[in-house]
Amino acid sequence: MSAVLEKSVGEPEAELTDGFHLVIDALKLNGIKTIYGVPGIPITDLGRLAQAAGMRVISFRHEQNAGNAAAIAGFLTKSPGVCLTVSAPGFLNGLIALANATTNCFPMILISGSSEREIVDLQQGDYEEMDQLAVAKTLCKGAFRVLHAADIGIGVARAIRAAVSGRPGGVYLDLPAKLFGQVMEAEAGRRSLVKVIDPAPAQIPAPTAVERALDVLRGAKRPLIILGKGAAYAQADNDIRALVEKSGIPYVPMSMAKGLLPDTHPQSAAAARSTVLADSDVVMMIGARLNWLLSHGKGKQWGPPGSKKFIQIDIEPREMDSNVEIAAPLVGDIGSCVAALLRGMGDDWKQPPTEWTEAIRNKKDANIARMASRLGKNSIPMDYHSALRVLRDVIKERPDAILVNEGANTLDQARGVIDMYQPRKRLDVGTWGIMGIGMGFAIAAAIETGKPVLAIEGDSAFGFSGMEVETICRYNLPVCIVVFNNDGIYRGTDVNLSGGADAATTGFVKGARYDRMIEGFGGVGVNATTPDELKRAVDAAMDSGKPTLINAVIDPAAGSESGNIGNLNPKSALTKKGGA
Ligand code: ADP
Ligand code: MG
Fold first, then answer.
1. 368: CA distance to ligand 2 center in Å?
2. Where are the beta strands (DSSP E) in 282-417?
3. pLDDT under 70 in the chain at which residues?
4. CATH classification code of 207-362
5. Residue spans in the chain of domains classed CATH 3.40.50.970
6. Ligand 2 center to 49 CA (angstroms)
């Protein structure tokens, strides 16, 4: 008998690990505690083992919703949200969320199992065959594939860094089925893992850029600050508030930046938005892009051409001059930039001219008074305003609740009516204005924050993710969904232009009872036809934390085509009057 063999017989067998365990260990090592996904081949065991290893694994009914959950988890925590899917179709379902996360600058990692490389690359027709890496590449910030178990640590590290450093975004990680079963010595496996140090390093602005920005601000007679969701993401809440207050400059929050300062703040110019956009002479954007949501910084809305100078704070240098000339680009992370501005302002900072702030206050007061009279009506059947007044009061009474909001009119009106009081409490359709984020966002908001969630959904918008009410019930999440049911898309009163028996293209079943959907899964369903019924039902849901769906019956004639963005919806000039 040889010595070598004798030795190996006498020693305990080396401890082993495999691809499944290495993926889980790599995620855990980097502080990732939750996986959102849908089980199936080849990742079923990955979910099971992750749960066994103490991770929270939230199984959805459709990958798009799991992906949206991961994306908004990234926005809320500054740590990448992880979505786990099966190959080809599951991957594609998750991809829309990955693309949306990238568009919105939310850090997210989509991990998909994939089929056998050898067969896929020869296009020999494998089970769910698809070159997923190639497909993902154009739709996200980074895409990686791991072929060897020993590279899992590096692959996960690269994905995390790509997602959260610089401008955050979506990252795809392709894990072929074979990888999961690969075995290696546990000790070597442990050594192969990477704990990412300082994944999103501070990016300090250049002192000259800070001075330039302050010079432009000092020269302003009618300055304005626009806060975007990048500012909300940055979690530099105290300094942002200090900057706004010390500067005395009126500000307008973009939708998901509402609550960074309470919407009731005296410097908020949200209720005088058109006036301040048109009449300001210097505009400082903090984590907001001059995209379609701000009509690209030009055109009628912005006053006469050449009437203003822009200062832009952004982590992405290439964002500068993307739509108009930026007089003072301030490239860096928002926390560092805002702190530098605060320091540079010194103790003798001059408040903006009172002519400007008074003009805004007058406009604002008039608009608020006009809105108050609309909100005061107790219309039955409910219209948007009478229903939203109730929900405005709910949030006022519970400022730490999270509001999720999608729809057309339901979105536009809610954004204007419901004041937010704390940062990162309003989650909505974002840069693309997409429908379908509702239940994914609501679930992740509840899981990540433990706070009650109020999801205000148009009946059409709700349909895109509505099956996840089962998920909400299964995990017993404190989510109250209010469906604004006006029998259709935009309105419930459209007619079939052919005169035929089919429903109009924008109409749904009349008098539908969405509340009964959640009852099927053990949740609380309520049909609310008056503002009082709605208030009672929402209060009960928010107090009990029980999964609840309230069917809010809205006048089918209420609502306008495409909400506030009807101008983007081309119309045939040939349609006869009295038609759509
Ligand atoms: P909104 O729609 O609210 O205007 P956008 O999504 O258009 O917001 O803009 C957000 C901007 O914030 C993006 O240009 C992004 O690069 C930037 N951003 C995100 N996080 C940070 C950060 N931590 N520091 C600086 N800029 C950031
Ligand atoms: Mg509707």
1. 26
2. 282-286, 309-314, 328-331, 402-406
3. 1-10, 576-580
4. 3.40.50.1220
5. 16-192, 376-568
6. 42
